[in-house]
Amino acid sequence: MRALVTGASGFAGRHLVAECAAAGDVVVEASRAADVDLLEPERARAAVAEARPEVVYHLAALAHVGASWKDPAGYLARNVALALNVLEAVRAQAPGALVLVVGSGEVYGPPATLPVTEEAPLRPQNPYAVSKAAADLLAGFYADAHGLRVIRARPFNHVGPGQEPSYAIASFARQAAAAVEAGRDPIRIVTGTLESRRDYTDVRDVVRAYRRLAERAEPGTYNVCSGRTASGRELLEALAVATGARVEHQVDPGLLRAHEVMEVRGSPERLRRATSWEPEIPLERTLADTVAWWREEIRAGRRCG
Q1: At residue 199, what are phi and psi to the nearest 5 degrees?
Q2: Which CATH number fits the domain that encloses residue 206?
Q3: Is residue 125 part of a domain?
Q4: Are both 256 and 147 inside the same structural domain?
Q5: Could you say which of 34, 164, 216, 277 has the lowest number of CB atoms within 10 Å?
C-alpha cells in the first residue's frame, strides 16, 4: 500500500513506519516532509496531494494526559485542528483513500462494565481524552457526511522501546536502567499510584494492528488492546525479574493524577474478528526490551539517566 503517516517521528509513528516498510509499503512521512505543518490547511492539502496515498494513518497529536491538565486549551485546539485538516485534505485530494484515525481508549473514561467495548459511551475524564474524543467524533462525521472511508482505532496503553519517560512504564524502565548501569542494588523507582490497573500492549503489536486494520477491516471503530491488565505493583515485580535486581519504590505525590480511573480493560474482540490479530509480545518481554533500550541510550550518552 502507498501510505501517508502523520506523526511519523513520534513514539508509535516510528514503529508504524518500520512495520509498513517491512511489509513492502511505500511510506510517506508527513511530519518529516519539508515545510509541512498540518496545522495549516493549505499545507495539509499539499502534503496529501503530493503523497497520493491509498491509506492515511493519522497519529499526529499532543498525547500526554498529565500535560493536558496544564494546557487544556492547547490540547483541544491542536488535536482537533490536526484531525480536521487531515480529514479535509483527504476529502479534497484523495477521497478514495482509507483514513485510519488513531484515537485513545481514554475516551471511554470510568467503565460501567469490563471489558470496555466499542459500544460504550464516551465519557472522557481529562483534557487529552476530551480532545481525542472530539477528533474521534469528527472522523465519524466525515464518514457519515462526506462518505470518507474511516477507521477509528482506539488504542489503550501502548508501551515499549523508544517511549519518552513522561509515561509510567518508560519512566520505570529508565530509572531501572540507570540504576543497573550504576551498579545499584536494590533499585529505587519513584512512582505514582501502584494500585491502578491498565490494559498494556506492546507498541510493536499495536502498529501491527493498525496496518492489519488498514489492510483487512471494514470502516468502523475498533479497540486496540490486549484485554488483560496489570497494576503498577506488578510492573515493578516484572522489572525486578528483567533486571535481576531488587526493586524498591517511593511514591511521589506529584505523580498522582486527578480523576484517576482505577481499572481500564478493553475488549479486542471486534479487532480479532475483523483481522485475526492477536498480541504476540508478552509484557515481560516489553519491559525487558525497554530496559535494554534505555541502557543503550544511557551508555551512548544520549540520555543522562
Answers
A1: -90, 100
A2: 3.40.50.720
A3: yes
A4: no
A5: 34
Domain that holds residue 251: 168-197+228-264+281-299
**Contact criterion met (CB below 8 Å) for 100 and 214:** yes
132 and 193: one domain?
Answer: no
Q: What is the CA radius of gyration of the chain?
A: 19
The per-residue b/e assignment along 134-162, b for 16 or more CB within 10 angstroms, e otherwise, is bbbbbbbebbeeeebbbbbbbbbbbbbbb
Q: Quote the cell numbers at residue 189.
A: 523507582
- Lookup: cell for 111: 467503565
Q: Which of 185, 166, 159, 183 is nearest to 255 (CA)?
A: 166
Q: How many domains does the chain have?
A: 2
* pLDDT tens digits, one per residue of 109-137: 999 999 999 999 999 999 999 999 999 99
Q: Which amino acid is at 139?
A: A
Q: What is the pTM of this model?
A: 0.94
Q: Is pLDDT at 254 greater than 90 in this prediction?
A: no
Statement to judge: residues 242 and 294 lie in one domain: yes
Host H or E run for residue 4: strand 2-6
Residues 232 and 107 in one domain: no
User: Looking only at Cα atoms, what is the longest distance across the chain?
Assistant: 60
